[in-house]
Write a sequence for this structure.
């Protein structure tokens, strides 16, 4: 694994461990994420994938180990600081600001680089007017990229599920990330929608020059989109490799289907 | 549109003002809020006086119409109520409020509008005297002020009970009890006694064990408890349970048919009159009150100090109006300043600060009755 | 004939609601001159009503004026609470405490001033300025050392504030004899006796009171805002009770004999009039609206909607909560200062936690997250409970006034059962609409075109 | 591809993670406050241990009363996440019910009225129990009615709406109760169904005869104290039994964990909620009667402050936790008694709340509260 140089690695996790009381949700997890890749994180339910996401984004503090983003330690930072450094995420169960409009959802993501402070807004300074206008226009343009501008004034909770997903991804991208973490983006989607989503992810990756790490259960989706895959079970990494390698890995099949199944699968 | 409305409104108001023929008197007391019971007592006493006067044909031929308002024992609420009485109802006389804290802001409003205010029960000196010490023209009261009552209690404790060490217990949020406590302390130490301890509580407290433990440890010869009967009941009962036998003394707040005599036995309090008093005013008042108000069981009620003051306060005002021969507040004010009135609470005159000058009775509490002890002339 | 009062009360309330609508509509116009005209007109209409006399009767009597002033101060307090609770989702019962702090703080300054003592203004003014400096300094230092736990940060801020307060007292004590010749004395009246100076001092005292409340809210909010919603609510209730306890003991535990503890503070100059109230009402409306309708305001809403998602969007949730809390408390302090100089007498009983439910009830009544609703509810509440019910029950016999506070909870219950999202939900009028920027107006048009149903109730919890 | 397999039972951290900077400052600050307080109280206790014990005992009495009320708060909050402000007023109604039962209808003596030959002591005991049961019944009916009328329609509404109605119901009970023809706003002296007796401890236990002094430096207590303590502990045990061992208890726990899942499991959640209100109200009623007997003065706003304190106690212990409410109540009682005894009586509410805030800062869900892990 030492073959990947830091220059090529956007995110590196070393021996990350998270303990909830006596339970080790994540145990000695190592992860190297090459820049520009789409990498998958898979594993059975309760394998600690979402916990790993939460550790990376600083939602929960790490128990031990180190996480570096672009060569800088980010463990111990607050979630908002991690985001400002360039890591954005979506959530397993969509967490839009449900009572706000789509436009506001995106404008909120712009907050940390709004360009004016509380003083400007209280005094309604010229700076406020300019920046607010610029920010709003930028948000509208941005929504246009995803063909969401027609929905800009819809209240988020009134959107259908699939669109909420797309808005959530768009909102994450509005944070101007270089690394995007997607937590089960295809959950609840039918095969057609899933295919669309795959195109969509490729599109945003190229358009915004992203590295993407995603958690997913739909194997077809994962195998179809990811260049590398890490498999977790019981908080530990049990395998990593290309989709082709993973598909034949004994331990992975065992983890998913139970002991003995590997042999049947192999035969 | 708005203009049309405002003109219509103005007409309505003008019509309302024209039809005021009777003598309206504002009755301002805390009917809700933290002490509705005090408001109720005062209101009952006041209304009794009103109905008696009306039965005799009113004052100067005018029927007295009480306009009852809720002051809530709160500055803002009492101000609103008083503003309503003065501006909407156009009353020239207000009886109330009961709490000093609610009365003080009202006296300023009333004074500015030349409305005469007589508070039956507000004991804070600042009710009738402003910040600079000047007497407010249109503010009077029917009760003793704190320094007078507190001073007498100190005198009584020191000379009559022969107490050298006193413990003071008072409600830190109630200016009546603070006033009495301060006055007591000043007078008691001046006489040569020693205050061995001071403790405070709040009106919502019910458990006094810790304070009583302190009292027990301090070994005073008298405990001053200048609060209302409800607190007195709580404290004295718990004191008995703790085996404390030191006499408790207090002010007119003790006076109530609801005073727990068994618990307070051995205590003394100052009051406006003695129920054993055979003066016609007292006897008639007790009879009339019992006839007018019944308790839950249908028996005639016995007035407490607040009801008595409400009654006397109303009578004072009405007599002054009668003496003045006019409802002009300046004239009534002058009449009040010169009044000499025989009320339930004794022969009353007013001093320069518009405080009543009247005798003070000291009563002693025994297991089954309230007994007359002594009278102190001012 | 007595019905005239009743009709009058209803008409007045309706007229006031119209007045609020007009004010907000006018302020919401894009041009500056339109706003200016609106302000002058809104002020003038009421001023005219106050001055208009029909014989003995004022169209807007002292009773109505009193209600109006209370409605305006209640509006300030409730708008602040709506920012904290309605927009930021932090269930606070401390608002009444900040109101009390503001009231006592400014009352003490003007009380001392009118008693020929300028030190109150000096010390309090210096204290708030030094305190603010101290807070900024500590904040700057802590920023360098990232990740300091909240409890430690609190300790540093507290030490800094105490030091600043101490310095202010010493400095003020040293300065006041130096400045005494300029202020004058009772024998040779100088600035102290000038009525104009008194008005300026009044203004300063209001600002200082607000700033003081804001600083207290900062130091209290810093650790406590990290608690979860309901726990935060209870802690704030504790704050309200602690404030009241301290006010009751202001002459024994605290060193302010002129506040007289439970006996109540008398002799506060009654300086509040319609001009001041109106000016500060507009100020508060503008502050709150400008806060909400900004990027910070949107972040505030995001924190209410979903804290975790807000953090994932790069929002410093702790800082944002603190900002909303401090601004909300600041306006509560302003409201308190205005109230103190209206009533002229302060007693700790007025700042009891039971009364502290009132702004909460108003905010919920008007609609959480609706500034318009808050204003309408504040006016409606005062004019209904203190105006209409008083007038109505006054006609119905000697026992009726006791029913005032029985009818009030019944009305409250009925409204909550019929309309749990409050009177206006999240609907806004004119000035408060998010439609002040060009895009926003496009939104209006678009919404109309698409016929969106913008039902905006706030869902609590998960 | 090498798969890094962790070594099974490896300890959690090999490299010690650097803790947050300057964390010690906050702890030192809290520690300093705590140490000063403890040292101060210990000094006072040392100088007069009898007084100290007496204060502890008085604190227990307060604590047990709070515990009875706190249970209702904590259970209701645990299930519907509602701060039921009206609970303190239900407590008040319990006190008034027993007042009318005793002084108007002399219900506490019904056995001697019905069976003239009965032993008076037995009669009073049976009678008093009847009074308590009646008060509990009325409180249950009241609470269930309140729940049906004021809270149930709002179950799907924003939580704050229910909270405001709770405040509304509380105001209504207080001010309606204060009307002249209901309870009136007066402070009503309460006639206990049985006499209070107190004892002091000095080489054995001796009764205090009312009106005579007990020796100095002795600890005293009364039969009411024993009754309150016994009732509070019994109720605690009983509730534990209900929650842990009965079907409805399991349903309660399920409903508090996840209402919609519980509904799917065939649990009638509405009934569980009503039951929770009912059982909380029953104990509040019991508390009300005992409180009235102990302090012998009742009025329409009697429930406000004990209710508030009890609620704070429930939060302190970790709201939703039944043993937490009990322990929290005892701590509140001690905090108040010790503050009154050694610091300053006016500061007791402030101190109680300060303790609460500090506990919440150190342990945000209260002493026994389970962490509400919000899932990302």
């Amino acid at each position: 694994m030492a073959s990947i140089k830091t220059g090529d690695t956007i995110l590196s996790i070393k021996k990350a461990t998270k303990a909830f009381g006596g339970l080790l949700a994540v145990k000695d997890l190592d992860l190297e994420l090459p820049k520009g890749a789409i990498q998958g994180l898979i594993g059975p339910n309760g394998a600690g994938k979402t916990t790993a996401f939460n550790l990376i984004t600083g939602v929960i503090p790490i128990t031990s180990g180190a996480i570096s983003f672009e060569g800088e330690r980010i463990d111990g930072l607050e979630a908002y600081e991690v985001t400002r450094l360039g890591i954005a995420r979506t959530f397993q169960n969509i967490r839009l600001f449900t009572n706000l409009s789509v436009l506001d959802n995106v404008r909120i993501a712009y907050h940390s680089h709004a360009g004016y402070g509380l003083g400007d807004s209280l005094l309604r300074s010229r700076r406020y007017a300019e920046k607010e206008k610029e920010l709003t226009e930028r948000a509208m343009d941005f929504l246009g990229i995803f063909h969401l501008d027609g929905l800009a004034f819809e209240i988020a909770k009134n959107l259908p599920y699939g669109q909420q997903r797309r808005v959530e991804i768009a909102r994450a991208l509005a944070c101007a990330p270089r690394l995007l973490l997607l937590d089960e983006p295809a959950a609840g989607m039918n095969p057609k929608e899933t295919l669309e989503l795959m195109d969509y992810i490729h599109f945003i990756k190229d358009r915004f020059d992203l590295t993407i790490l995603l958690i997913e259960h739909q194997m077809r989706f994962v195998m179809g989109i990811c260049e590398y895959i890490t498999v977790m079970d019981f908080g530990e990494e049990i395998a990593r490799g290309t989709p082709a390698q993973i598909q034949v890995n004994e331990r992975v099949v065992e983890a998913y289907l139970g002991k003995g199944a590997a042999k049947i699968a192999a035969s | 549109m708005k203009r049309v409305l405002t003109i219509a409104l103005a007409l309505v108001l003008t019509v309302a003002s024209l039809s005021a023929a009777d003598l309206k008197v504002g009755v301002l007391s805390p009917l809700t809020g933290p002490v509705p019971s005090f408001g109720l007592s005062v209101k009952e006493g006041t209304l009794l006086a009103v109905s008696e006067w009306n039965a005799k044909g009113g004052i100067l031929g005018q029927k007295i119409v009480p306009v009852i308002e809720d002051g809530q024992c709160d500055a803002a609420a009492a101000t609103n109520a008083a503003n309503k009485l003065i501006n909407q109802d156009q009353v020239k006389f207000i009886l109330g409020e009961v709490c000093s804290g609610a009365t003080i802001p009202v006296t300023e409003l009333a004074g500015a509008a030349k409305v005469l205010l007589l508070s039956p029960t507000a004991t804070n000196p600042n009710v009738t005297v402003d910040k600079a010490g000047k007497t407010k023209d249109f503010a009077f009261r029917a009760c003793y002020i704190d320094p007078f009552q507190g001073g007498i209690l100190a005198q009584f404790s020191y000379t009559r009970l022969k107490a050298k060490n006193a413990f003071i217990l008072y409600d830190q949020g109630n200016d009546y009890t603070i006033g009495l406590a301060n006055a007591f302390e000043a007078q008691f130490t001046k006489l040569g006694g020693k205050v061995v301890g001071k403790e405070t509580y709040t009106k919502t407290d019910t458990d006094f064990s810790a304070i009583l433990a302190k009292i027990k440890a301090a070994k005073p010869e008298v405990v001053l408890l200048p609060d209302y009967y409800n607190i007195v009941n709580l404290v004295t009962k718990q004191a008995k349970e703790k085996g404390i036998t030191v006499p408790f003394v207090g002010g007119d707040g003790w006076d109530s048919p609801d005073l727990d005599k068994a618990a307070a036995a051995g205590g003394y309090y100052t009051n406006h009159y003695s129920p054993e008093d055979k003066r016609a005013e007292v006897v008639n008042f007790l009879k009339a009150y019992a006839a007018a108000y019944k308790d839950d069981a249908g028996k005639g009620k016995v007035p407490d100090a607040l009801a008595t003051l409400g009654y006397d306060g109303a009578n004072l005002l009405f007599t002054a109006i009668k003496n003045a021969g006019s409802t002009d507040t300046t004239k009534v004010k002058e009449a009040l300043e010169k009044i000499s009135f025989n009320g339930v609470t004794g022969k009353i005159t007013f001093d320069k600060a518009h405080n009543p000058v009247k005798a003070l009775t000291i009563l002693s509490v025994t297991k089954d009755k309230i007994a007359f002890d002594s009278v102190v002339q001012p | 004939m007595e019905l005239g009062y009743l009709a009058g009360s209803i008409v007045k309330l309706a007229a006031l609601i119209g007045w609020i609508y007009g004010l907000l509509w006018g302020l919401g116009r894009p041009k500056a001159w339109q706003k200016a005209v609106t302000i002058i007109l809104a002020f003038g209409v009421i001023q005219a009503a106050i001055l208009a006399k029909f014989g003995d009767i004022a169209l807007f009597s002292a009773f109505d004026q009193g209600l109006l002033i209370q409605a305006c101060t209640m509006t300030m307090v409730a708008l602040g609470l709506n920012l904290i609770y309605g927009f930021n989702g932090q269930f606070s019962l401390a608002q009444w405490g900040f109101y009390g702090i503001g009231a006592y703080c400014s009352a003490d300054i003007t009380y001392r001033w009118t008693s020929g003592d300028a030190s109150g203004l000096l010390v309090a003014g210096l204290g708030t300025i030094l305190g603010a400096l101290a807070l900024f300094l500590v904040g700057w230092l802590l920023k360098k050392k990232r990740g300091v736990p909240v409890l430690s940060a609190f300790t540093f801020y507290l030490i800094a504030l105490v030091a600043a307060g101490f310095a202010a007292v010493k400095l003020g004590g040293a300065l006041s004899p130096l400045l005494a010749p300029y202020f004058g004395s009772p024998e040779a009246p100088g600035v102290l006796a000038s009525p104009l100076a008194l008005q300026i001092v009044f203004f300063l005292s209001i600002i200082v009171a607000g700033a003081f409340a804001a600083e207290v809210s900062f130091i209290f909010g810093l650790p406590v805002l990290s608690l979860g919603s309901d726990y935060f609510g209870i802690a704030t209730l504790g704050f309200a009770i602690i404030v009241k306890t301290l006010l009751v003991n202001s002459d024994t535990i605290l060193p302010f004999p002129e506040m007289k503890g439970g006996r109540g503070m008398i002799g506060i100059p009654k300086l509040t009039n319609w001009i001041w109230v109106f000016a500060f009402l507009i100020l508060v409306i503008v502050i709150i609206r400008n806060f909400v309708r900004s990027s910070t305001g949107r972040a505030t809403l995001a924190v209410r909607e979903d804290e975790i998602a807000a953090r994932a969007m790069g929002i410093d949730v702790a800082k944002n909560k603190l900002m909303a809390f401090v601004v909300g408390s600041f306006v509560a302090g302003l409201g308190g200062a205005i109230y103190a100089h209206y009533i002229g007498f302060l007693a700790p009983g007025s700042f009891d936690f039971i009364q502290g439910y009132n702004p909460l009830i108003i905010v919920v009544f008007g609609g959480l997250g609706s500034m318009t609703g808050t204003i309408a509810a504040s006016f409606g509440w005062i004019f209904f409970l203190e105006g209409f019910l008083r007038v109505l029950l006054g006609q119905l016999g000697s026992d009726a006034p006791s029913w005032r506070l029985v009818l009030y909870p019944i009305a409250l219950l009925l409204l909550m059962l019929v309309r749990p999202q409050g009177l206006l939900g999240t609907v806004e009028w004119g000035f408060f609409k998010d439609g002040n920027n060009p895009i926003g107006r496009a939104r209006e048009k678009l919404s109309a075109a698409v016929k969106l149903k913008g039902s905006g109730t706030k869902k609590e919890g998960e | 591809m090498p798969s890094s397999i962790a070594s099974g039972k490896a300890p959690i951290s090999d490299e010690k993670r650097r803790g947050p900077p300057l964390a010690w400052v906050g702890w030192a600050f809290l520690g300093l406050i705590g140490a000063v307080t403890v040292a101060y109280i210990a000094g006072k206790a040392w100088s007069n241990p009898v007084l100290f014990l007496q204060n502890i005992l008085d604190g227990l009495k307060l604590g047990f009363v709070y515990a009875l009320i706190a249970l209702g708060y904590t259970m209701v909050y645990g299930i519907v996440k509602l701060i039921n402000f009206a609970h303190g007023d239900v407590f008040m109604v319990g006190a008034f019910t027993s007042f009318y039962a005793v002084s108007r209808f002399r219900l506490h003596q019904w056995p001697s009225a019905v069976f003239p030959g009965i032993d008076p002591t037995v009669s009073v005991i049976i009678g008093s129990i009847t009074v308590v049961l009646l008060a509990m019944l009325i409180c249950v009916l009241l609470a269930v009615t309140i729940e049906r009328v004021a809270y149930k329609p709002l179950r799907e509404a924003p939580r704050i709406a229910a909270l405001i109605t709770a405040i509304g119901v509380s105001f209504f009970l207080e001010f309606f109760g204060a009307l002249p023809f209901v309870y009136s706003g007066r402070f009503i002296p309460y006639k206990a169904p049985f006499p209070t007796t107190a004892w002091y401890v000095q080489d054995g236990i001796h009764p205090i005869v009312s009106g005579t002094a007990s020796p100095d430096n002795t600890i005293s207590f009364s039969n009411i104290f024993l009754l309150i303590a016994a009732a509070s502990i019994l109720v605690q045990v009983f509730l534990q039994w209900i929650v842990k061992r009965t079907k409805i208890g399991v349903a309660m726990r399920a409903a508090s964990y996840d209402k919609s899942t519980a509904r799917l499991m065939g649990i009638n959640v509405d009934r569980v909620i009503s039951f929770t209100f009912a059982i909380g109200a029953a104990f509040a009623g019991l508390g009300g009667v005992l409180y009235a007997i102990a302090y012998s003065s009742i009025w329409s706003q009697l429930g406000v402050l004990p209710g508030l304190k009890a609620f704070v106690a429930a939060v302190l212990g970790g709201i939703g936790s039944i043993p937490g409410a009990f322990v929290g109540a005892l701590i509140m009682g001690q905090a108040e008694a010790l503050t009154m005894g050694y610091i300053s009586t006016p500061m007791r509410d402030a101190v109680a709340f300060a303790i609460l805030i500090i506990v919440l800062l150190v342990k945000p869900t209260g002493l026994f509260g389970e962490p509400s892990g919000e899932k990302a």
In short: The longest strand of chain A covers residues 9-20. The mean pLDDT of chain A is 85. Chains A and B do not touch (no CB pair under 8 Å). Chain A is about 40% helix and 25% strand.
